[in-house]
Here is the input.
Amino acid sequence: MRVVVLTLLMLFLSGTLSEDGGEDNRCQTDMCNILKSLKAIEARLNATENQMEVMRNIQDAVAVLQRTDEEQERKLQVFSFWANVTQLKLEQEQHMLDVLKQQNEDKPKIALAGNCHISAPEKETILPFSNVYTNVGNAYNSESGVFSAPVRGVYYFSFLSFAYNGHNACISLFKNSERMLSACDHHSAADSSDSAGNGRTLHLEQGDQVYITLHARSHIFADNQNRSTFRGFLLFRT
Here is the structure.
């Protein structure tokens, strides 16, 4: 607005100077100086307005940058939060792995596996699995056929018997003197080869004995294919 007023004033003064004294293209010294001053002021005002426009543009840009910085700060805070959560989960999982590793190191390593061959005893007989191919912890006696629990805990045992040429296959799993389970397969005309198997978990005290018996007049056969086997291992201590 001030620029418009100054421009109108300069036009008015310019017209006035042209009409005075009848002298074309001549002006009084004071009026010329005023006109020059007004032109200088107009130039400065125009420059100031340009500078103010530049400043407004700069302020707008700064405001945009500030908003961007605030948004980035919020995103950074969210990222930092989830990074901390992830780190906490990793530390918890590492702790659990360390605990499991320690438990596994403290856990006794106990396992057995073997096979045998025996035919038609007159009475029920403990089976000694003399061909032992796993006996971690040395808890199984291959001569007596008895597994003695070295620690209190829960164990798993399984067995499999194979008979052929018309023989019956019938065996049992004992805990101390108690029959825990049996498996039998009797000969039939349609099936000359017979197999039987079973398995279960047992809670044993230290020193408890586990063994397999072959029933009277039963038969099991074993060869390099491990057809008749006895297996067991510790699940966990109690």
Observations:
- Residues 16-22 have pLDDT under 50 and may be disordered.
- The CA atoms of residues 117 and 222 lie 5 Å apart.
- The first strand starts at residue 111 and ends at 115.
- Residues 111-237 form a domain with the Jelly Rolls fold (CATH 2.60.120.40).
